[in-house]
Amino acid sequence: NVYYYLRYILEMMPKHMEDTDRGFLDSMMPWSEEYREYEQQHTLMCQPELRSNEYTSPPKTPHKHHAA
C-alpha cells in the first residue's frame, strides 16, 4: 500500500536524522518486518465499519449518450 509506505517513511525518517549509522535503512524497506507490522496496525485502525448491504453491489454509473 503506497499510502501507508509513504506515511511510514515520513514518520520514521525524522527519528534517524542524527544517526551516523545507516543500518536503520533495512527497516525502512517496504518488505521489512517493521514496515509490515506498521501497515497492518494502521490498516486495521483506519478501516471503516461497513454498514449492512453497503458495498455489496457495484455503484450505479450514468450512461454516456453519444451524439450521432
Descriptive notes:
With 68 residues, this protein is mostly helical. The protein has a domain at 2-46. It is built from 2 helices and no strands. It has helices spanning 2-12, 33-46. The protein is elongated, with a radius of gyration of 20 Å. The mean pLDDT is 78.
Blueprint (SSEs and pairs):
Blueprint: H1 2-12, H2 33-46
Comma- or semicolon-separated keywords:
single chain, 68 residues, mainly alpha
Task: Write a brief structural summary.
It contains 2 helices and no strands. The protein has helices spanning 2-12, 33-46.
- The arrangement of helices and strands along the chain is HH
Radius of gyration: 20 Å
Task: Provide the residue-averaged pLDDT.
Answer: 78
Structural class: mainly alpha
Strand content: under 5%
Low-confidence stretches: none
How many β-strands, per DSSP?
0
For the termini, the CA-CA separation is 43 Å
| Number of H/I helices | 2
The percent range for helix content is: 25-40%
What's the overall geometry? elongated
> What does the main sheet amount to?
none
